[in-house]
Amino acid sequence: MATVLAWLLVVGALLLPNELAKVTPWTFLRIPVEAVAGVAALLALPPRPRRALAIAGGAGLGLVTVLKFFDIGFYSVLGRPFDPVFDTSLFDPAVVFLTQSFGRAGAIAVVAGAVLLTVAVVVLMTLSVVRAAGQVVAYRRTATRAAAALVLAWFVSAALGAHVVSGAPIAASDTAAIVRGHAAQARASLRDQKAFESEAVVDAFRDMPGDQLLNALRGKDVIFTFIESYGRDAIEDPLYAAEVGAVLDDGGRRLAAAGFDSRSAFLTSSTAGGGSWLAHATFNSGLWINNQKRYRTLVASDRLTLTGAFERADWRTVGMMPGVTQAWPEGRFYGYDKVYDAKNVGYQGPAFALGTMPDQYTLSALQRLEYGRAGRGPLMVEMPLTSSHAPWAPLPHMIDWNDVGDGSVFGPMSKAGDSPEEVWRDSDKTRAGYRQSIVYSLSALTSYVEKFCDDNLVLVFLGDHQPAPLLTGKGATRDVPISIVTRDRAVLDRIAGWHWEQGIKPGKRAPVWRMDTFRDRFLTAYSPPR
């Protein structure tokens, strides 16, 4: 029985895909070429090298199996495979996410379980391969005949293109292909740094004096607002479009009644499912920041960001960062005069997972802390709204602006509804939570503009990335909506050549730009010709 289980484990590991959508019962009814080649090698080797090969092969298969599990997780959340070169730096943010979603004890339990599972997989796979190798030698004649038959069957199936079902060829070489793919990925990742360094030195605005920057926006309060996980699917996927579209339509009507006009389009984000800081850096720097190495190189440089351009042009630059709960040295790179994080905005209410505080409080704090300052000049604000961040539980709801206060009024909301664990166990609840969170964030922002903002406002609001593939499905674009809102028609006339659509809900035929192109187009539109 132990031998049968050992063989099942080895063959199952070799046939295991690295994407959850490809895991079906039929997946495991195929012939893995790696197993056939392994049996042939074991039969050809003398005892000592044979045992060394079995141990090394088992440990290697165990590590590759762990790599497949990482791939499955990354495909499910970020829509791409795990990158061993760059993605190990994401472990710290992952622990922060677990801590804020499930508490410190829950995060420790998950991390400890992951470590133990990794060790167990490697050890168990090694033992299984060693045991299987022993049986191959013990029954050499039978093993030789079986290997020959399987080799023939594999080559005939490969030649005929035979499949168990569509997408599951009988002649399987999945594990070898995955290893080759990751090896090529690692080589490409290592080359990427040189390519990025060459891109980063090209900057038409690097030396532009402040008195020549953004003259067409002098005297305006310019707010760049990212709405977490606000992707194209939120306004086009039938699972979300009706409710999200309704709040955009209603918000657009109310803003128009208050004298505001708007234009909208789409940007293609450098990330999906997570990694918001990569999208923020891409938007702000005009460089394609799609991995942590590029991000670290960027923030260690003197690249001119949108924030830096406003600072150079004598705006007061403010970062409203409700999701920042730890030291954030990157604030110096971006060029903020003042950073408000989760600890210094006066919030006395309950935590809302990674959202930390409701968006309505963040907006209220901006009004109180910056717009309420006596004798203030024009502001430039970057403000991620985080209530639509996973895990989408608990969720706040809108209240009267006069009742926001120090945020303690939100206390009952943090205890209402399902817990994050309950939401993530049920895909329907996960989708409903995501939909409701986007509706809330958009409602809070449009209500804020309607109630508090004046003729000097220029608001640019956009999504940072699409939500995880488990919400959008496989093959979703990386597009996010972007809108510019103002009462000043001259501001919109400057971008008439962009051909963006009217309103705050872009249609299916609205222009689509890469997110890294926005910085230069924006600075060109609102700065005098060079």
Automatic annotation (TrEMBL):
UniProt KW keywords: Membrane, Transmembrane, Transmembrane helix
Keyword RNA-binding: no
Species of provenance: Phytohabitans suffuscus
InterPro entries: Alkaline_phosphatase_core_sf
Highest rank taxon of the organism: Bacteria
SUPFAM superfamilies: Alkaline phosphatase-like
Identification of the protein by name: Sulfatase
Coiled coil: none
Bilayer-crossing regions: 31-46, 53-78, 107-134, 146-165
